[in-house]
Amino acid sequence: MAFVSGFQRLLRHSHSHFTSIRFNSTLTSPKLFVSGLSRLTTDEKLTEAFSPFGQLMEAKVIIDRASGRSKGFAFVSYATVEEAEKAREGMNAKFLDGWVIFVDPAKPREPRPPPQAESQAPQTGFTVNKTVGWCG
């Protein structure tokens, strides 16, 4: 129990240090990137936590396709940049579902490189199986 209270005291005193490090960039869009989420955080819990700061357009926890579980981050969009800035100031380095979350400006999605075309098939009539591993 002493460890928990000591940890909370440390977070309280270093909160301003964390926020000063993470507030060095300004918002240019009303979309925020939220990291450090618990695997139990849902879209509904995210909406509930971020709705007091303005008109929420979208709150989406990113889910892993294979496992169906949260990847631990989300995107939140507001109607205006001012509302997004209020949410960023109000929710950065706060607890949500028992985890400390961080709220940063969302970066635009980088375009993916086009898929590489397969090399020409050999003229010998044989094809190459690119699967590597042991079968048996």
TrEMBL record:
GO terms for molecular function: RNA binding. SUPFAM superfamilies: RNA-binding domain, RBD. Residues 30-108 form the RRM domain. The keyword RNA-binding applies. The keyword RNA-binding applies. Pfam families: RRM_1. InterPro entries: Nucleotide-bd_a/b_plait_sf (IPR012677), RBD_domain_sf (IPR035979), RRM_dom (IPR000504). Keywords: RNA-binding. This is RRM domain-containing protein. The lineage of its organism: Eukaryota, Viridiplantae, Streptophyta, Embryophyta, Tracheophyta.
